[in-house]
Design goal:
single chain; alpha/beta; 146 residues
C-alpha cells in the first residue's frame, strides 16, 4: 500500500508518493496544464500514477489562508477533491498545506537552486512536504495506540 500526496495549484499539480512502509514521501512529478479549468488530463495522469504505484489513499493539500480563513483556492480544491474521489474511488484526505510552498522554496535556496529554476520543482517538493506531514501524523497516532 502507498499513499499519494498532491499539491493542487492553478496550473500545476505536484505529486508525491510514499514508500510501501508508509515512512517516507518521495516527489514523483509535476503535472502541468494550460488552463486552470482543464483537469481531464491531470485527472487521467493521476489515475495512471495511482495504478503504477498501487496507491490506496490520497492526501490533498488544503490551501487555507494564514489567518485560518478559506478563500477561492479552497473552493477549487474541494471541487478537485470531489472529482478525484469520483474518478478514482479512493478516499481523499484534506491536509493543511500552509507554509509548504515557503518551506519548499527555502529548501531549494539552501540547496543552491537558482531562483529562476525553483518554479520547476516547488510544487513537487510541496507535495512531498504535505505527504510527509500526513505520514508522520499517522505514525505518531499508531505509536500512541501501542
Amino acid at each position: 500500500m502507498r499513499i499519494m500526496g498532491l499539491d493542487f495549484g492553478s496550473k500545476t499539480c505536484g505529486v508525491a508518493v510514499s514508500d510501501p512502509l508508509l515512512i517516507t514521501a518521495q516527489g514523483v512529478e509535476i503535472i502541468r496544464r494550460d488552463a486552470a479549468n482543464k483537469l481531464r488530463k491531470t485527472l487521467a495522469r493521476i489515475e495512471e500514477l495511482i495504478e503504477e504505484y498501487e496507491v490506496e489513499e490520497i492526501v490533498l493539500g488544503y490551501p487555507k489562508n494564514m489567518n485560518d480563513t478559506e478563500g477561492e483556492r479552497v473552493e477549487l480544491t474541494k471541487e478537485f477533491k470531489e472529482k478525484l474521489e469520483r474518478r478514482t474511488g479512493l478516499e481523499v484526505v484534506l491536509w493543511d498545506e500552509r507554509l509548504t510552498t515557503v518551506a519548499a522554496d527555502r529548501l531549494m535556496m539552501e540547496a543552491g537552486v537558482r531562483r529562476e529554476n525553483r518554479k520547476d520543482y516547488v510544487d513537487q517538493i510541496a507535495a512531498t512536504f504535505i505527504l510527509q506531514g500526513y505520514l508522520d501524523l499517522k505514525k505518531n497516532r499508531q505509536t500512541d495506540k501501542e
